[in-house]
Amino acid sequence: MPTQNLLIPTSDGEADAFAAFPDHGDRHPGVLMYGDAFGIRPVLRELARELAGHGFYVLVPNFFYRHGPAPVTELPEHIGEDVRPAVVAQLMPLIEAHTADRVLSDADAYLRFLSSRPEVSAGPVAVTGYCIGGLLAVRTAVAHPGQVAAVAGFHGPVGADGPESLHRLTAQAHFGHAGTDMTPETLGELNQALDAAGVEYTSEIYPGTVHGFTMADTDAFSPSALQRHWDRLLPLLDRTLGDS
Predict the structure, then answer these.
(1) CATH 3.40.50.720 correct for 3-241
(2) What is the pLDDT of residues 63-86, one digit of tens each?
(3) Among 8, 115, 140, 242, which is disulfide-ready with 15 (CB 3.0 to 4.6 Å)?
(4) What secondary structure letter does DSSP report for 120?
(5) H/E segment holding residue 140
(6) pTM reported for the whole predicted model
């Protein structure tokens, strides 16, 4: 499968990025994939390749590029609970510096770059995200209603901007929540806000999961939840971006 290491021009410089796409055909629907806070690394590249294998051009930017190329902090091969707090502590200043204005400015650049790629077909794109990437995905979809047809977020704070922001969401959506991130009560509140906003969506707690369940290089990983994520994500993309 073809892959590329790329540089995306932004208003603040260049964001390094990874892309994967099918080795057949000329053009494919585009998907912007926001990773978790740990950033571009083998497990995220594998998720992108898996998605690309279903017929999509997948672009994964390093959204912490202002602090250097990925990985912006040294990561162990396996991010176990014994090292996770120290790694997160290193990343927190970067997370806090990634303001809403920066998110939206970068989203403009990422989508502009994605649509310019010769391997990407004309038409709408999708945005998906993991952990903090889920929030970035929602913000991107809200800001680009005419371009983003689908948005998905997994074990992320997708409703963190409040119900008002959801009223501007026009993309079809799926949100897969970790059992440790959301209670049935808070899920009900989020889903009520989505209903009130008229969003076409599915939103559910994945049973028996903890935060980070899609990431195979962490103790949180759940193979069954990762498969559930594919079972929800792929039909959403096929409905909104056309047959791949």
Answers:
(1) no
(2) 999 999 999 999 999 999 999 999
(3) 8
(4) B
(5) helix 132-143
(6) 0.97
What separation, in Å, do the N-terminal and C-terminal C-alpha atoms of the chain show?
16
Q: Write out pLDDT tens, residues 167-214.
A: 999 999 999 999 999 999 999 999 999 999 999 999 999 999 999 999
Please name the residues in contact with 46: beta carbons below 8 A apart, sequence gap of 6 or more. Answer: 216
What residue type is assigned to position 18 of the chain?
A: F
Distance CA 40, CA 53 (A): 19
Paired residues of 17 in beta bridges: 6, 61
d(CA 132, CA 229): 16
Judge whether residue 244 has pLDDT over 90: no
- pLDDT tens figures, 89-131: 999 999 999 999 999 999 999 999 999 999 999 999 999 999 9
